[in-house]
Amino acid sequence: MRSGPARIFLASGALLLAVGTVIGAVAAHALEVSWTADQLAVVHTALLYQFVHSLGLLAIGLLLIQIDSAAVRAAGWLVMAGIILFCGSLYLLAAGLSGAVLATPLGGLLLILGWLVLAAGLLLRWPAAKA
Length: 131
Prior knowledge:
By secondary structure, the protein is mainly α. It has helices at residues 4-31, 37-66, 70-94, 103-125. The chain is 81% helix and 0% strand. It starts with a helix and ends in a 6-residue tail after the last helix.
């Protein structure tokens, strides 16, 4: 694998999926009896976003192996930061740390920007098909 960022995005996506699985198991088995329905709903929202965007981060890592461009690299960093800020702040919010909610919209914005940067980079620089 020639791209350092590709390896980072692939490993991070895999680790975030593993962490999400652990958090989901803890929420389903240990927290279900002690947390409110609202707290669990916040955790479930964070898990949904973490799983979907972590799979996307894996896709970005694979894409970067094929198309090593600044836009794909930037998209990976934006998505990774967005997952950490958005999902992390929701987990903290569910645990009762209300100050963490300030990072949630920033994380969401980073996720959106990451996917827009990827789309723009692919549309503007996608290699032409050979006839």
